[in-house]
Amino acid sequence: ALERTQTAQRLESLGQLAGGIAHDFNNLLAIILNYSQFAAEQIPTDSEARDDLARVLRAAERARRLTHQLLVFARSERTEPAIIDLNDVVAEANDLFSRTLGGHIQLVTRTGEQPTTIIADRSSIDQVLFNLVINARDAMPDGGVLVMEVDHVEISSDEVGYAPPPLSGRYIRLTVNDTGTGMAPEVVNRVFEPFFTTKAKHEGTGLGLATVYGIVTDAGGSIRIASELHVGTTFSVLFPAAEVSDQPTATVADRPTAHGNGE
Ligand code: ADP
Predict the structure, then answer these.
(1) Across 144-167, average pLDDT
(2) 50 CA to centre of ligand 1 in angstroms
C-alpha cells in the first residue's frame, strides 16, 4: 500500500510538472502564433516567405493542440464531481455530432427511459465521449455507422477484459461502436499508453485514450474494448450507478473504487 501511495504521489508531481511546463509553453506559443500571423499579413502575396511562415503557423498550431491535450491529461484544472445523467450527456452530444461528423457517417443514438445517473465531473465525461467519438469517426474515413448508447448493467463477479476489472455492482454503461478499421490485438493492448498513436504525424497525439482512462478510473469506472480488424470497434465504459438521492457532496475520492482506494 505504501508503494502504491508513493507511486501515486510521484505521478501526481509529474503531472503537476508537466502541467506547469505545458502552461508556459502555451503562452510562448501564443506569442509565436500572433507574431507569425502579423508578419504573414505584411508579406506580399507572391513571396515565398509566405509559404515558410504558413509552415511555422501550422506547426505552432499543432504544438498548441498538443500542449492543450497535455494540460487536460495532467488535469491541472480541478474537477467537480456532481450527479449527472448520461442520457443527457449523450443526447446533447447527439445534437453536436449530428451536425459535425460529416454526411458519410450515420449517427445512431440510443438512450433509455430510466435515469442513468453517475457521480462525475460533467466536462470530463463530455471529454470521454468526445474522444471516443472522434476516434470512431477517424476509423471510418470511407463512412459507416457510429452508435452511441447508454444502458444499465449489473456486474456479478470480476469480469475479464476490462481495464481495470470492475467490482460487482450496478453500473451505467456508455458504449461507442463503429464499423471502421478495427484494431489488431497488439494495438488494443497499447491504446491507453500516453503518446501511443497509429495516426499520421499531424493528426494524432496519442493522448486521447490515456485521458479517457484517467477520467474513467478516477470516477471508479472501467473500460472494455471489443475490436475486429475490418469490422469495427466497441468501447464500453462502465461507471458506478448513483442514486439521485446520493449525497451530491460525496466526492469520487470517497467512494471505493476498483483499485481499492477507500482502505
Ligand atoms: P490518437 O487519437 O491521437 O491517436 P488515442 O489515444 O485517442 O490517440 O488513440 C490511440 C490509438 O488507438 C489510435 O491512434 C488508433 O490506432 C487506436 N484507436 C482508438 N480508437 C479506435 C477506433 N475506434 N478504431 C480503430 N482504432 C482506434
Answers:
(1) 85
(2) 34
Whether the pLDDT of residue 15 is over 80: the answer is no
Q: How confident is the model at residue 12 (pLDDT cuts 50, 70, 90)?
A: low
The span from the CA of 62 to the CA of 67, in Å, is 9
Q: Which helix (H) or strand (E) holds 75?
A: none
**Cα–chain center distance at 218:** 13
Q: What is the ipTM for the molecules in this complex?
A: 0.99
**What separation in Å is there between the alpha carbon of 204 and the centre of ligand 1?**
8
Does the beta carbon of 234 lie inside 6 Å of ligand 1? Answer: no
Residues 6+ apart with CB under 8 A from 12: none
Q: Is residue 187 lining ligand 1, measured as CB closer than 6 Å? A: yes
Q: Is the CB of 135 under 6 A from ligand 1?
A: yes
Distance CA 86, CA 173 (A): 9
Output the pLDDT for position 148.
98
